[in-house]
Amino acid sequence: MIKLSTILAGTAVAMFAQIAAAQAPMSQTQAAVPANDPAYIDQSRLNYKEDPYVKARIARGQANAEYRAERKEARTEYKQEVGAARAERREAVKDANTTRASEIRNEPMK
Length: 110
Hints:
The chain has four helices and no strands. The chain is mainly α. The protein has a domain at about 55-110. The radius of gyration is 40 Å and the shape is elongated. The N and C termini lie far apart (about 115 Å).
């Protein structure tokens, strides 16, 4: 008796062979790009900057660079303001501490 797996394997091989035989191989003439085809000329390096997608990508990159520069400037300005506020707060706390210490020293003992 023939096993079922052997029959299935043989059937699969036969189907694959028929499918592979039905497909025609691609010839070299079909694969070659026509020399003056407009579809390929428009995408060449000569007209690279004229492509609307490339123009949009370049414009988007410039807009992102401007946004990052503005954001960086705003961030440094914010950090400077925060640093100044912290320094002012430290000075205020230091003044309050020295004032309170001098008040305690000048108070008479009870």
